[in-house]
Amino acid sequence: MKNFSTVGARLLALALLSGSTAASAQTPQSSQAACAFRPNAPDQHVVTRGDTLWDISGTFLEKPWCWPQVWGMNRDEIANPHWIYPGQIVYFDRAAGRLRLANQVGAGNDGSGQGTFKLSPQLRTEGLGKDAVKSIPAGAIEPFLTQPLIIEADELKNAPRIIATAENHVFIGKDDKAYVRGNLNGATSFQVFRPGKPLLDPVTKKTVGTEAFYLGTLKLQREAAPGSDVHTFIVASAKEEMGVGDQLMQMPPTPMQNYVPHPPEAKVDARVLAIYNGVTHAGQNQVVSINRGKLDGLDIGAVLQLYHKGQTVRDPGASRGWHNLGNPQVKLPDEEVGSLFIFRVFKHISYGLIMQVTEPVVVGDVAKTPE
Fold it and tell me: Which range of residues forms the domain containing residue 120?
């Protein structure tokens, strides 16, 4: 159960509370067909601490990301999810082709040993969220929610920047002083970034952005005096050493931590731009960036299929007239290797978490709308 990552947990009790049916999901027939149950799907699963909804759904479904459909939920219900908890039971209603949530309240008398299931429309509110089944494992994506930053065009062109340090230190760390020049727009807490290498589109070979390196945070100690635009800051936290020339961005709001998987609204055909930390291959639970974003139809929770792009090879038989195909250059089919869950979206670039990968992912691999 731990070899899958997950998505969006909070929705299960709500399906029962609202009395949703297969019709309420309003799911196209083709999507229903894509959300097939595994031939060896169990009758039930007891939710345990450490489970994720992707884990649980992967026990029952061929494609774990399409779990909202087999819970019979519509978009309004998905937008207002509730939590499920360890100890609750997910069981497979084979007659209805649906998953349901229940509590086991006693042992049965039929000799099956399966016990009695009681559907629970009441929502658990005590300690809401404390013990709940989580979305994607927090440790896998939390640093990417607010720290690594995609810079598109000239977004940091006019950002405040460190122009000097106390006692002219080359680098500064926690509790050190920094002098910053620029418009703070009333903010007092900032993150510090250093622009990194350009991100090149694997198809066009053009620069589409830059991934900045997160260095730490600064807290305003004293705003610039009248007639000056130099502010005094103290380093509140330091992940890496920072110094003159590094740039500031206002601390973002705490991001929403619940994610609901769904296919993109529009057809997406993307390529892997980069693998974080500069490695050449990425595996399960690693983060990559792709060359499509919100202006291309992606949003948080979108799921894409990952493929190794098929090579173009020469068919020696074609040049001799075999098969009457003529062109000796042939592109091999793209080979599916896993899925990608989008959790942070910029204008033309997005971060995705690799899920269920069967082979390492490399820059240039294809990420597109599930078929």
Answer: 12-135
Q: Has this prediction a pTM greater than 0.90?
A: no
- The whole-angstrom separation of Cα 97 and Cα 93 is 6
Judgement on whether residues 186 and 281 belong to the same structural domain of the protein: no
State the sign of the Cα–Cα–Cα–Cα dihedral 38, 15, 303, 352: negative
232, part of any domain: yes
Number of helices (H) and strands (E) in the chain: give both, helices first: 7, 19
Check if the beta carbon of residue 368 is closer than 8 Å to that of residue 297: no
Query: What's the domain count of the chain?
Result: 3
> Residue 184 and residue 159: Cα distance in Å, rounded?
9
CB 317 within 8 A of CB 327: no
> Cα dist. 342→156, 252, 259, 289, 326 in Å?
24, 19, 9, 9, 41
Q: Do 33 and 103 reside in the same domain of the chain?
A: yes
The tens place of each residue's pLDDT in the chain, 371 residues long, gives 333 333 333 333 333 223 333 323 333 333 444 678 889 999 988 888 877 777 787 888 888 777 767 765 555 544 444 557 788 888 888 888 888 777 654 434 333 334 444 443 333 333 345 565 565 555 667 767 767 778 887 777 789 999 999 888 899 999 999 999 999 999 999 999 988 888 889 888 898 888 888 899 999 999 999 989 999 999 999 988 999 999 998 877 665 555 677 788 889 999 999 887 767 888 888 889 999 999 999 998 888 999 998 788 877 766 555 555 566 778 788 889 988 989 889 899 999 989 878 899 999 999 999 87
DSSP structural state of residue 204: T
Q: What CATH number did the domain enclosing 295 receive?
A: 2.40.10.410
Is residue 260 a part of any domain in this protein?
no
